[in-house]
Amino acid sequence: MKRIVLICCVWGFLNSCMAKKEKTQTLFDSIEKLSNSYGICSHITRDGVLFDFDTRNNEKKLMVDLGIDYVRTDLDWYVCQPKENDAFNYTQHKEALDVIGDDLKILGILTPFTPRRTLNQWEIYVKATTRKFKDRVNCWEIVNEADLVKYRIKDFTPEEYVKMLKSAYSIVKNNYPQKDVVYSGLCDVNCGFFERTIELGASRYFDIMNIHNYANKDREPERLIPYFKKLNDYFIRYKINKKVWLTETGCTTMKGWASEMTQSIRLPRIFIISFACGIEKVFWYKTRSNEINKNDKECFFGLVHKDYTPKPAYYSYKTLIKICPNRSTRPKLEKNGNVYSATWKRPDGKNVWALWTSKSEEVVKLNIKGKYKIYNLNGDEQSYNSCDYTITPSIIYIVGAKNVDIVN
């Protein structure tokens, strides 16, 4: 009888240990290896103290130094045609994109006019803008955060957006079939806007699905996993098979929201989790904090300060791109107890493991085989004198090992 009880206890213990290990599935259509996966948002086409046109050369230097692939920026209607029936003037847009040159790919955002203009006028703007920048812009996003446009344009509806999306898609594909059309970067896929547009047939009029999600205040990056699963539920329900981009993510460092170190710690977790779930490209919002208004969270999202001195997140992004470069295999993510681990193979053939927790610290034993080096969030090499490792929300990278196992 005691033996039976002991066996049952051991079996129950093993099952409980096994249950703690959770693998995150790749949810969306995505290629096996990362390709042009790192992006950033920059308002280089908008002038004024809130934006980055006047500092566009510094913006470009920052992007190149980071090693990103894509810049997402606005091709605003109000800038190129402020008054109805005016001739289009693209001087400001062109000066901004000339700075980018051929060094980076461009995701251009086509924006509606406030107050509302007609669908016919929208089509004229889309035709003129896509023709003007056909050799500069790689893909076109149709309206930023369409689910929030109703706060700028009265009674803006999913029905109106689908008409705009359909007409823009037709214009782009009829003239530049190789260009991808990107759905509006939604603030929240669960607000009803997205589902209504799909019911209206919107999935026929875009190549790439597009979402936004932020890790502000106490919203840890790991909450992205159920958010992506919810989007995948919509895909399954409506039989959608599209690539997905996360074209805005970030963490404001406004006082009372998150510290600069918290921003830095969250950044690589956002990217790695997104890649593991099948997100093709991730764009950090944004390059520079203008820091104009200390009470406005929008003024503190940047990787660098107003004067372009780096925040810690600048270095954690640069380190991530170096340790998980393009042509690396898509990270595979699992959770073992409270510890998250992701693994991938770089184009140089080296295996990489990234380990972290969501909030608390966790002491674990690691069985590491082969020659390896360990780096912290900023790429500084670390040394450990035992097989006990304290894993925290600040990620560590194990580079070059043949295998890494969490023993306990």
TrEMBL record:
SUPFAM superfamilies: (Trans)glycosidases. InterPro entries: GH (IPR017853), Glycosyl_Hydrolase_39 (IPR051923). Gene3D superfamilies: Glycosidases. GO terms for molecular function: hydrolase activity, hydrolyzing O-glycosyl compounds. PANTHER family: ALPHA-L-IDURONIDASE, BETA-XYLOSIDASE-LIKE PROTEIN-RELATED. This is Conserved domain protein. It comes from Xylanibacter ruminicola (strain ATCC 19189 / DSM 19721 / CIP 105475 / JCM 8958 / 23).
